[in-house]
Amino acid sequence: MTAFSYQQEQLHAENVSLTELADTYGTPLYVYSQSAIEQQFDAYKQGLGDHQGLICYAVKANSNLAVLNCLAKRGAGFDIVSLGELERVIAAGGQADRIVFSGVAKQANEMRRALELGIHCFNVESDAELDRLNDVAKEMGVQAPVSFRVNPDVDAKTHPYISTGLRENKFGIDIRSVKDTYQRAAKMSNINVVGMDCHIGSQLLEAKPFEDAIERLLTLTDELNELGITLKHIDMGGGIGVKYSEDDIEPDVTGYIKKLVDHLKSRNLGLILEPGRSIVANAGVLLSRVEYLKDNGEHHFAIIDAGMNDLIRPALYQAWMDIKPVQPHTNGKEALWDIVGPICETGDFLGKQRKMSLKAGDLIAVMSAGAYSFVMASNYNTRGRPAEILVKDNKATLVRKREQLADLWALESLGE
Ligand code: LLP
After folding, report:
1. Is 233 in contact with 147 (CB distance < 8 Å)?
2. Residues in the ligand 1 pocket, defined by CB under 6 Å
3. Do 265 and 303 belong together in one domain?
4. Do 361 and 253 belong together in one domain?
């Protein structure tokens, strides 16, 4: 199944025409393919095979309830980083005992709720957080299942903003001191030490950094064994990248996971993974309409109705995302277009120097926009966030309504 393909010279999501969706629901519009999401999740499941473990989808990548629901139905666990994500997963039908809770700044009320629901594990990132968790669990008279996020100091060779496994990053506990933390935790009355985790970065296109990291973690688990601390699982985080452009390699998800499972063969350790982007990125597009064409002799601007508030990745990370015409055979003007939005910022572009034929009124699709796209959208310039559609075969469902203007100031008042 190809999530997005041209049929009768029109770009389709599965078997639904994007032109029809734009006409019915307006633009900008996010459209996701359910089959593509399911297929990617299944690739992880296949990699895991019958090795014990859990695929915990990283909710931050795309947290629409319908997306979470379709993954929950397929047996997914979830990686969350806030109370909001926890409640979303529950609202979407996810199982609490399949949730791992990551993040550097967990608050006591977030811990309390997660303990009340009985989550699978807390990925603890500091000694101070461990103390707080032990206190909260004691108050509630329960044991908190804990894994420590180790910062393995490996270079994920990705964009500096999404690289997390180096000593200079704020994440995790230094690999040189984490053994002390484990020993302290093992003595705590309300902590149950069950695992070790890491997350070295995002959009990784090679397996090598994951393999380096797992080897470092396994050396540590062996040392802990000698100290009488036996773990049940290793969590390798998320981070497998996706093909955004022709220059990127398409990572073989199943193959990468099989490699990690191989490293665990001689040990009695389950494998948890926290994939986000690789499950949803290529299952989504942002549909937008060209408002105006503008030419200053040197630059050709296609001004569209979607901006950096709808999709911030190009502005924030200089991310390159493919842009395709929805109907490629219009009699538009062929040029190298800068595809820019309506926001009053120079950084408001979705792509630069894109060769295509365009005219005002045309629809374009920003590809690979299923991950870190809607979730990072804002109301900057008092713009309502786009609607979201989930497509399965020839059926399209509106899974989030477009924000209306009155929604944008509903929580405000005129003051005194
Ligand atoms: N687990 C942890 C602890 C994480 O911090 C992340 C992502 C994931 C799992 C999921 O990683 P993934 O499989 O999606 O690479 N907004 C950026 C990406 C930020 C990633 C943050 N952490 C972007 O648009 O590229």
Report:
1. yes
2. 58, 61, 79, 102, 162, 199, 202-203, 237-239, 274-278, 313, 317, 372
3. no
4. no
Is residue 160 in a domain? Answer: yes
At residue 389, the 3 state secondary structure works out as strand
Closest approach atom of ligand 1 to CA 373: 24
Q: Which two tokens stand for residue 366?
A: 């920003």
- Provide the β-strand partners of residue 53: 271
Neighbouring C-beta atoms of residue 378, cutoff 10 Å: 11
Query: Are residues 187 and 260 located together in one domain of the fold?
Result: yes
- 125 and 220 inside one domain: yes
As given in the structure block, the two tokens for residue 55 are: 């695929």
Q: CA 184 to CA 131: how far, in whole Å?
A: 10
Give this prediction's pTM. 0.97
Instruction: Give the CATH number, domain containing residue 371.
Output: 2.40.37.10
In a domain, 198, yes or no: yes
Q: Do 383 and 404 belong to one domain?
A: yes
Residue 204 Cα to ligand 1 midpoint, Å, equals: 11
Q: Does residue 308 sit within a domain? A: yes
CA distance 161 to 202: 9
In this structure, the answer to whether residues 204 and 333 fall within a common structural domain is no
- Each residue's pLDDT tens digit in the chain (416 positions)? 689 999 999 999 999 999 999 999 999 999 999 999 999 999 999 999 999 999 999 999 999 999 999 999 999 999 999 999 999 999 999 999 999 999 999 999 999 999 999 999 999 999 999 999 999 999 999 999 999 999 888 877 666 666 666 666 678 898 889 999 999 999 999 999 999 999 999 999 999 999 999 999 999 999 999 999 999 999 999 999 999 999 999 999 999 999 999 999 889 999 999 999 999 999 999 999 999 999 988 899 999 999 999 999 999 999 999 999 999 977 899 999 999 999 999 999 999 999 999 999 999 999 999 999 999 999 999 999 999 999 999 999 999 999 999 999 999 999 98
User: Pick from 133, 105, 102: which is nearest to 199 by CA?
Assistant: 102
61 CA: nearest ligand 1 atom: 14
Are the C-beta atoms of 356 and 317 separated by less than 8 Å?
no
Write down the catalytic residue from 70, 121, 198, 344: 344
Tell how far the Cα of 101 is from the centroid of ligand 1, in angstroms: 14
Domain assignment present for 98 = no
Residue 337 shares a structural domain with residue 207: no
Q: Which atom of ligand 1 is nearest to the CA of 275?
A: 13
Same domain, 176 and 160: yes
> Is 56 designated active site?
no
CATH of the domain at 144: 3.20.20.10
Q: Whose CA is nearest to atom 5 of ligand 1?
A: 199
